[in-house]
Amino acid sequence: MTGTVIFDPLIPWPVLTIVAAIAVAGVLLALWRGLSGWALRGLAALVVIAALAGPVYQVEDRAPLTDIVLMIEDESASQALSDRAEQTAQAAEELAAEIESRDNTELRRIKVGDGDGDEGTQLMAALNAALAEEPRARIAGILVVSDGIVHDVDQAPDLPAPMHLLQTGRESDWDRRLIVRNAPAFAIIDEPVTLTIRVEDSGAVSAGAATAPLEISVDGAEPEHFTIPVGVDVEMPVALPHGGRNVIQFTVPKAEGELTDRNNTALIQMNGVRDRLRVLLVSGEPHPGGRTWRNLLKSDSSVDLVHFTILRPPEKQDGVPVDELSLIAFPTRELFLEKINDFDLIIFDRYKRRGILPAIYLDNVTSYINDGGAVLIAAGPDFASADSIFRSPLAPILPAQPTARVIEERFVPMVTDLGHRHPVTTDLGDSEDWGAWLRQIDVNHRTGELLMTGVDERPLLVLDRVGEGRVALLASDHAWLWSRGFEGGGPQLELLRRLAHWMMKEPELEEEALWAEANGQIMRIIRQSLEDEIGPVTITRPDGETLEITLDEVSSGRFEATYYGPEIGLYRLQEGEQMAVIGLGPAAPKEFERTIATDVVLEPVLAELRGGAIRLEDGLPSIRNVRAGRPAAGRGWIGLTPRDAYETRDVTQAGLLPPWLVLLLAGGFLLAGWLREGRR
Question: Where would you find the membrane-spanning parts of this chain (predicted)?
Fold first, then answer.
């Protein structure tokens, strides 16, 4: 129990102060006039003022409360390096035993792992949460068992007691880190993009080689080997081999004695785009469909279009001198011999043999297709005539053969079962809402994939792969009716856009493809196929382990599944002959940007209340009691500040000046003063 005197004035303190001033003035006046009873009158005033101040003797029944020590144990990824985890566990157990053996002391142990995503070690967030749950007046100290690599030190709270860092790691640790800077999200296919690469050594690096080996691999292929200097920015040109996502892996092999190789690899994912898609459009004669093709291709800013319409065929003899013609001569030799490989797509729109393109030129087109080019035949009545382009060196590579019949009949194009699975014709909408076409060229399907049919289910759209290239045949020249809204129109723009981009090998329109999309550590695996069923996808993790995952069909020809990748790094996917790679996690995980244990990050927080940092490899420090404001750490020791906190169970109060005593004393002093002055 503790007893103290407190005051509970009967009148406000300002009024009491005025009364006291008046009393003092009266006593001083009596003293100045020489009245012999001034002292007794002063005692009477003092008794009255003391009574008005309300002195009370208060007795509290107090129960002492224990001091609380917070111990934060860092279990983030960087703490798994070397023997830091063992250092942490051993130090935490020994400290816990010592603190729990102290009188009047409790221990709270808080474990901190990696933050969500790539936030790193969120130690201060854990400390803030712990302080919110405990009375700050009872916190005697904060112990942090960590390597000191903290990523939210800017959120450090006002500390109620000294904080100490018990630092894991070894003074002899050193590490090598690979950094890739200025990696763009997009790059042009087959054109070098310059990346800045740097290899940095940190920690107790021994004198050695000033260079490091570097391996660069694209999409998991066999890596190329280079040697670059350490500690210097190196500009490295890299060319993307294909469109879509390209996964580039940079790796520096682990050096002898290096702390970890987790930061020796960087994954960069860049989308390859074509600089310009070059299209050659050859129209055999002016017609509404030719304008449709021209408008479609000119509306795409990524397409360079070269368009020739044959307005004056060789057989036309009208006697007009050549020098008076304003027509541009068709540069056949330049286009079909010298620069044919510069084009990504050649479209023959209602073209027929008129002697403009000799057989040797069309034979060169066949070679162009086999070498990876693309040709689209938009057929009109010319395709069924004796001058059909089918009756040329192109015949062996065309997927359908004309029967010489032109069907002048109303019909609505229909997508085949296979077409519903093919990316070019899937999800085009309900064919019942489409307008009709009025002409179809009758052909016999020979090879390739039949995606659309017309009159009596005759072939309308056929796609085929020839050698390394692609060929497509559209057996009608009336697709333009959809663009004019005839009988409600149809998806003409989307169909022709997809068709042209499939011909130019755009990745998203491949009918047989496997790829994945990453969101943090979760990948969505997508398999596009024309088959009704596919096998499981085999996933090879960065550590070499494999597993199989089954995909579900989410729409016609599209199968999907999600998978959580437990590791950061390169994952390989395979299903049949289809293969893909994807990188999960950041290019440079924050936990491994700095791996050498340090007290520099936490030093400002420790210095706030004069805490300290102790290396665990030097031994566990002793624990002392220190007063608030005094140095809380020294060589081989750390301090806790006892808080002497208590809980008040009961309070009793008793007045020191009861009214009868005040009346007796004040009246007695006044009477004595009056009598003394009367005797004089």
Answer: 12-31, 38-57, 657-675
